[in-house]
Design brief:
10 helices; alpha/beta; 337 residues; Rossmann fold; 15 strands; 26% helix; homodimer; Quinone Oxidoreductase, Chain A, domain 1
Chain lengths: 337, 337
């Protein structure tokens, strides 16, 4: 069978132990390419997205979505081209993005599928800055963070898929954008390519001192992707009535036991901070608004987007996924199928 | 000199070491009774309020108000009677509440002073349910917690000055009110006298199990006075889009090192919780609204208020203050001067 006639999928075989994902957690299953039923279409997947949230999806713990079932195809965002359709809204050749799963082909009823414009940006970009991470940055910063022009916005994991967009939107809205990232290369990228006002290397020097130097007027909005010590340090520099948009706590996702929470929670009280969690699905009805805004800024050259595109196909999935938790990726992590 | 002609004040002599307050932190100073200048009045203080926040006010750490200076009169709310006035708005005989300090007499320009109605309730009650703790409960629950009828509201330190009012307002607004308190006597008081739907004893049984039994539909609003393990347990039972009003973190105030923060902070993300700190001063312009509402409910018999009135005068201040951090008080703690 040629690769076009075999359906390959990454299946969850067991709940992972705490820590990084071991290869035995997933297996690749092969079978015949499925045919769409009435009202369905089949998409040939070109790229799958690797997202920090995946580490939570494979756990059994309570979360905002049910865990991936043992034996099921791993949940994941993907982009591809429709190649067969019995759905009135989709035709062969359509470029689409959706929660298609980590596999070579997917059958879809079109629910939550977004048609993407490959004239505006290549397919893989619709998994990054123009896709879910971009929408997360857009609603998380603007709706939860509510930055006002002239305020200081701090973003952790600033070179990452979401963080890189958050800081650029903050700049577009007239704020001072300060990133936190690991290592000089990432920090240079955040300032020189993404145009943040400053970026603090949390692996060098003293984070509290360096952050204070980068935020002379304190911090009004924190877009939190990391948690742990980084959040603790930020908390101590928040201005009164500051907002903390909790988008991710990646420092905890692969910890082998629950790490301690922020010791400086008292700042929430004394500074009257608002700390609020966000899941992008809650703005689902407004995704077109985000797509339009992000697409426009990107077209105007005001929004730099970079993917970290990895080869190796589905077999490389577990290994590539772990890059997210070791800081090994550089921008939005995408796997070519 | 008779007691009416000597001015006695509790002065802060040194920053306390972490933990409970030791007696040497304060000293009593004596001197002549001060005379009001032009635009000032003198109040003879009858009762001073003992509040959890006091432990923070004597530290040097960054907070929402500057620390009490070494040598200065200890900051504190008090009620008393105006006995001499050169202020056009206050006359001898007026009953007043204000941040008069822990002393026998105070000179005031009338700033932030509230005239109280001793026909509606005795003087000391205006330090409790009808005073600052009541206003804190009112704005914290209604403005930050935003409870809707039918929702479940959980209050820690439920028998305390603020918690006792929070649960009763929650009931008035049609919510299920569940308290958390230490010991069977406090829990009985919370249910039988204050009319909460349930109260969980955090010193008995398993808090998580008992809380789940008391909150079969999960928790929509948490009014947090304690922090630490109690907050951690509550976090795991919050419903999506729940609100956590952070009013106090008393479990941390006397800790000898910063205790760990909430391990279950991840719930803020997965459940899209809003956690927000509150300081009652932020609603200062709306205090009359709270006074009117609380006074009305109290008059109608829908709002039970109890003071834990202690004798011993100013000399007993350090010892009585520590009761707040050991759970030794029972209702709003007030010291007769």
């Amino acid at each position: 069978m040629s690769s076009g006639t075999v359906h390959r999928s990454v299946r969850l075989m067991r709940r992972p132990a705490p820590g990084l994902i071991t290869p035995d957690v997933f297996e690749i299953a092969e079978g015949p390419v499925p045919e769409p039923g009435e009202g369905e279409f089949r998409v040939r997947i070109a790229f799958v997205s690797l997202d920090p949230a995946m580490r939570g999806w494979v756990n059994e713990a309570r979360s905002y979505v049910p865990p991936v079932a043992i034996g099921a195809v791993m949940r994941g965002y993907a982009v591809g081209i429709v190649e067969a359709s019995r759905h009135p809204g989709f035709e062969p050749g359509d470029a689409v993005q959706g929660l298609f799963g980590v596999q070579s082909h997917a059958i879809s009823k079109g629910e939550r599928v977004v048609r993407v414009d490959t004239g505006l940006a290549p397919l893989e970009r619709w998994l990054g800055g123009l896709g879910m991470p971009g929408w997360t940055a857009y609603f998380g910063l603007l709706e939860v963070g509510q930055p006002k022009a002239g305020e200081t916005v701090v973003v952790s994991a600033a070179s990452g898929a979401v963080g890189s967009i958050v800081g650029q939107i903050a700049r577009i809205k007239g704020c001072r954008a300060v990133g936190i990232a690991g290592g000089p290369e990432k920090c240079r990228y955040v300032v020189e390519t993404l145009g943040f006002d400053a970026c603090v290397d949390h692996k060098a020097g003293d984070l509290a001192t360096d952050l204070k130097a980068a935020c002379p007027n304190g911090i009004d909005v924190n877009f939190e992707n990391v948690g742990g010590d980084v959040l603790d340090t930020v908390l101590m520099q928040m201005n009164p009535f500051g907002r903390i948009a909790v988008c991710g706590l990646i420092s905890a996702y692969t910890a082998t036991s629950l790490p301690p929470g922020p010791k400086n929670l008292r700042a929430v009280l004394t500074q009257r901070l608002r700390m609020q969690g966000l899941i992008v699905f809650d703005w689902e009805k407004r995704f077109p608004e985000a797509i339009a805004a992000l697409g426009q800024w990107h077209k105007e050259g005001r929004l730099a987007i970079r993917e970290d595109l990895r080869e190796g196909g589905l077999a490389a999935f577990p290994e590539v996924l772990n890059l997210l938790y070791t800081g090994g990726n550089h921008g939005k992590l995408v796997l070519r199928v």
